[in-house]
Amino acid sequence: MLVGSHAHGAEGQGKKADLKSTKEHIDSHESRGHKTRYNHRFDAFACLTCDEWLESKCHDPFCNYCSKRPKKPSSEVDGENGEWELC
Ligand SMILES: [Zn+2]
Ligand SMILES: [Zn+2]
Questions:
Q1: 3 state SS of 32
Q2: Rounded alpha-carbon distances, angstroms, from residue 45 to 1, 2, 11, 25, 64
Q3: How close is the Cα of 61 to the center of ligand 1, in Å?
Q4: Nearest bound ligand to CA 25?
C-alpha cells in the first residue's frame, strides 16, 4: 500500500475524482509516448518528458511531501534513476 499512502483529507469520497484526473493525465502523456513516473519522495506522479508534475498538491501547507516538492520534477530529482518508478 505504497501508492497514495499520503491521501490527506479522507473526508468524503471527493478523492476519487482527483485520482481519476491524475490517471487521465498519465494516460494522455503515455499515449503520446512520454515517460511518466511515480516519485516516492514526493508521493506524486510526473511526466519526465514534459518535466512537470501530473498531480496537484494537497491542501496541507505542512505536508511532508507536497510542501517540499520542487516546481519541476527534474530540478531536484536525478533523472530516471533512484526515486522514480514506473507507473
Ligand atoms: Zn508529458
Ligand atoms: Zn500532500
A1: coil
A2: 16, 13, 22, 9, 16
A3: 27
A4: 1
Put simply, whether the predicted model's pTM sits higher than 0.85 gets the answer no
Domain boundaries defined on the chain: 16-86
**Low-confidence winner among 9-13, 41-45, 83-87 (lowest mean pLDDT):** 9-13
Q: Rounded to the nearest whole angstrom, what is the distance from the C-alpha of residue 12 to the centroid of ligand 2? A: 17
Q: Which of 16-20, 24-28, 78-82 has the highest mean pLDDT?
A: 24-28
Give the span between the Cα atoms of 82 and 58, in whole angstroms: 24
Name, in order, each residue with C-beta under 8 angstroms of 34's C-beta and a sequence gap of 6 or more. Answer: 47, 48, 49, 50
28: amino acid identity, one letter: S
Residue 57 CA: which ligand is closest? 2
